[in-house]
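Quick question: what would this complex look like in 3D?
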Amino acid sequence: MAHFDEKDLIKLMNLSRIECSQEEKEKFYTSLSRVVDYIETLSEVNTDGITPCNHILETVSNVTREDTIGDLLSREVFLANAPSHVGGMVKVPPIIKLTPS
Amino acid sequence: MTNIQYDLWQPVIGLEVHIQLNTKTKLFSSAPNRFGDEPNTNITDVCTGQPGTLPVLNKEVLKKAVQLGLALKSSIAPFSRFDRKSYFYPDSPRNFQITQFDHPIISGGTILADVEGVTKAFAVNRAHIEDDAGMLKHFSTFAGVDYNRAGVPLIEVVSEACIHSSKEAVAYATALRAIMEYIDASDCNMEEGSLRFDANISVRLKTETTLRNKIEIKNMNSFHNMEMAIDSEIKRQIRLYSENPDADPKTIIQGGTYRFDLEKKETVLMRKKEAAEDYRYFPEPDLPPVFISASFIEEIKKDLPELPHERFKRYTEQLFLSPAAASTLINDRQMCLYFERAYATCPHAKNLCNWLIVEFTGRIKDSGRTLQAIGILPEHVASLVNMIEDGTITGKIAKCVADDMILSPGKDCRLIVKENPDYQPLQDTSSIEALIDQVLSENSQSVTDYKAGKTKAFAFLIGQVMKLCKGKASPIMVNEILTKKLQ
Amino acid sequence: MHKHSATEITTLFTKGEISAEEIAKNTLARIEHFDKDVGAFLAVHSERMLKKAANLDQKRKSGEKLGALAGVPVAIKDNIHINGTLTTCASKFLSNYKAVFDATVCSLLEEEGALLVGKTNLDEFAMGSSTENSAYQKTRNPWDLSCTPGGSSGGSAAAVSARFCPLSLGSDTGGSIRQPASFTGIVGFKPSYGRVSRYGLVAFASSLDQIGPFSTTVTDAALMMQVIGRGCDKDSTSIHAKAPDYVGSLSSSMKGLKIGIPWHFLEQLNEEVKQNFLASVEICKKLGAEIIDVDLDILSHSIAVYYVLATAEASTNLARFDGVRYGVRSPKATNLEQVYDLSRHDGFGPEVKNRILLGTYVLSSGYKDAYYKKAQQVRTLIIEKFKTAFTGCNLVMMPTSPFPAFTLGEIQDPLQMYLQDIFTIAANLIGAPAISIPSGFSNKNMPLGVQLIGPYMHDKEVLSAAFAFEKACGFGSKIPQAFDKEISV
């Protein structure tokens, strides 16, 4: 496995929207590299033919609910926690009109 | 510029269709699934991504997905599951969408569509369930986010790259819309956004076997615009390749997202192709997997209405409607239901169909109203056609009756005929004979012509008789009696 | 009154020997007096608690039916919602976030007459093993105020350990209930995955999180489980099977019980912990249990598996904290990118950022198979190994923690902190019920704990065996000296 390098860290910061100062970057780089090296040890385990455990509950499946309206969140309560709102909408700085990927 | 040889090129198109399901509540949240309400009034803690909330699957969505799978004759996966798709955007309440990545509920399938009179089969690659994002409203100094739409259930249907023209694309889209309407799974309202199309388009020389680079067109909000957008893009790509015959094709078209500019009537670049976004898909741990059993599918099958392509088959093979007429009915569900009701009391399908989709449709349009709103009962239309078929009135009289039906919607046409002496059919043999005698005496040249072998004269004489009686005589009787008299 | 268990308090209240108001006032007085030294609480809901107590007294007066926890004060970890009050998750990001609904567990508790005291301190977003990652304050171990109470549910553990209240709720993702329980000399129980609803628990790692009780006695933990161990329609991973009679099933004997111990895996134990563990095993033998050897060597990989899976899930669970809909938005943000980047930069502490970055890494393209998929496969292996072990025994026994409580600031290296969870993580990975019970004291008079792990959904058996152990040695009844004082209201 390729070793965790600084390019990786920058890519991760972009993906996870976490900004860091240079000093913080260095700190993260150090601690993350160590942890990544540690989790590398998993490659020692033979997992040929083993199914990944994607759902821990073996006996539970098809959990559904009826198509009926439940308790709503009032707009007032919702917006009370919003950092900024206007006209009943949550307000954010202007966005260049792009559709997300 | 030398002539571009468009016909050397084959367009290759794939359509991704997002369909909002018309369930009462959202996919994972029990907020109402409604369009057009005040912002942030159809929300719960779940669909606004409040911390500590968890998704719970709406069973009606599963049902509709299975219905769609049956309608497309797809493979319905016995095991499917949900995945998280991560990306940051303000209209996403959790900054991850819950979708189905590698175990979609539906794989494969076919959409039968009528393309300019020919039925074609288009292959579907897959269809899966996912939740919709909220809506952003853009202003100059800020953007507003409304989460009413966040969490609305979507089915995304992805076609194979098997569409080769804009007409085929529209036919495919129309057929898919008809299916969704038939299984009552969606309002399919492009203006309200419950039906959204993205097209992936590339072209290649007809001799090539591999695909060239494609671009994506988004936000086509009507079939007409989609047709124009696709045509425009095909031309653009062919033109670029033709203008640069020596360049590496990969450099001519490099991917990207386009929109169709209605004013310029051409596709315009929105966003260049970036490095593929890393969505970091992984199985959604808050939702157990979905197992669809054969018995569940059987149960859904029982409730499945007759699907568009089955109905098309029945119309053309059993009712002997023309493919064009059948298509018209199929693609307009309201009209189709109307037709079915009328057909229940009038077995003359072809004539009935014609009267509905030509005669009545035209008159209703002229009156400025709609079939749903005008209040003419399907049974009355059926009655009218029955009267024509059994000779009670002629086709010509029927047209007058139809005009009256528009003026007095809801009035039984039999009553209209009864009340108007001009509509009374002339069925009295002696009266008809008298008319015929008159015509024969006034048109001796035609009689001579007919006896000399000119069959056209016969039709002329019939015409004269009908004119004289103002169309009231039964054509069959006139024909019979005239034939006898001319012998 | 501080010596009373929850069972005793509700009995006294129901009988009319003490009023809910008195209980509430006493609780609040103790906190007022002692919590400045401990720092267990982030918020004390005095007004709310007194109001509920008054209502409860009225209820009892008018002869209405009283619930199973009537009159019992319960503290709630501050990553679990009480409607209308702050849920901070000990993070700056949520310093102003008011819960918009009650967590299912809180509704259930209040339905049964419990008096919710307030919110306790934790490691930020439950990420940590010492509660030192809280953005607000340190919590101190009532047994030695220079030591941590463990984490991430350090506040809830300290509150019970210092006898501010007989019961509290924590959450356990990799040991966050059990390890603090063992550090603070009390009982901490992690139920089977799905046994307790997660609706209203701010998610850290969805497939590992469970809410569970801290208590001074196993009976109290069983009583709490009776109340909160229910199916929930708002949690798709919730089990709806009816809970057995946990309290009624408690047995003072281990006769017929087979206890599996992974001796090989435990070879490297710290001497003190080892001695205490061996002594605990002897107690089990005396109670009639048969000890057998099981192979759980695979657990040497459990930390790596955990830190791949938990951080992967957490990286997406915490993506919603973006400064858009709630939480603190950075006032310096002038465009959308900055709303995200600056709010998250300012709002999250370093350990949270560490884990989000790691979680993003193990899911990112090119690495997902090597890390995420691999870890999921090893998780399957761990589940299989335990299943095999359980064919030969009823319960597995291990120490809870490799060391007793360490001093505040002692462990700076994140990796070293992660290694604290070596014995507790397995139960989360396999979804099994697991309890930590006080098993003695170190040479420095710091509490030690042992852990019993049962097969999936065998919560009753785990509680029962713990009860027998507790009855035999009663370490949990010891109260830290500094807090063993009656406070007058």
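Answer marked as accepted. Residues 429-486 of chain B form a domain with the Arc Repressor Mutant, subunit A fold (CATH 1.10.10.410).
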